[in-house]
Amino acid sequence: CLTSVFWPLRRALAISLAAAVALLAAMTIFALQLRHYVRAKQAEEQLAIARRVQRDLLPQECSGCEGVEFAVEFLPFSEVGGDYYDVFRASHGEVALVLGDVAGKGLPAALLMGVVHGAVRGASTGGTSADHAELAEHLNEILCSRTAGNRYVTLFWGSVDPSGHRLRYVNAGHVPPLLVRRRPDGGIEVERLGT
Questions:
Q1: Residue ranges of E strands in the chain
Q2: Gap between the Cα atoms of 12 and 27, Å rounded
Q3: Of 94, 95, 187, 189, which has the fewest beta carbons less than 10 angstroms from its beta carbon?
């Protein structure tokens, strides 16, 4: 008779113990997954910062670029990448036009393109547009010595003299841009800017 009195207590104790073990297992799984979740959120926040930094490096307009019009649509494949363009007034008074692409995708390509952006801007502070070939060769040497063999950059780097209507450029393996001009007869002339 005593067993029948304690049976409900034993059953309640067994249910409580099972619930406690299940709660402990759930909390353990939650704690393990929380670290992964926090790391993923931190990576997502860092990627958002990288996206903003990359967007801020790309010009929306060019103050001091009178005589040169440009239009761009930039749609990266992923959150960030190695696509790059720049338009700015160089120290020698001409307008620099730069298009580039780093092989690969994602953060590694975006980081290398940031280096190229700084190197091109830095190189454009001195010298003349006639120095493009030497500057591009020097940039190539730096990149070859500092990057892995599977990383490379294609680059179109031009300089426009708006007053003399003259374009000098180096095309280092990039897809040839198109130069569109109006002919004297009013028609349109399109030229591929290859080598």
A1: 83-89, 95-102, 153-161, 166-172, 178-182, 188-192
A2: 22
A3: 187
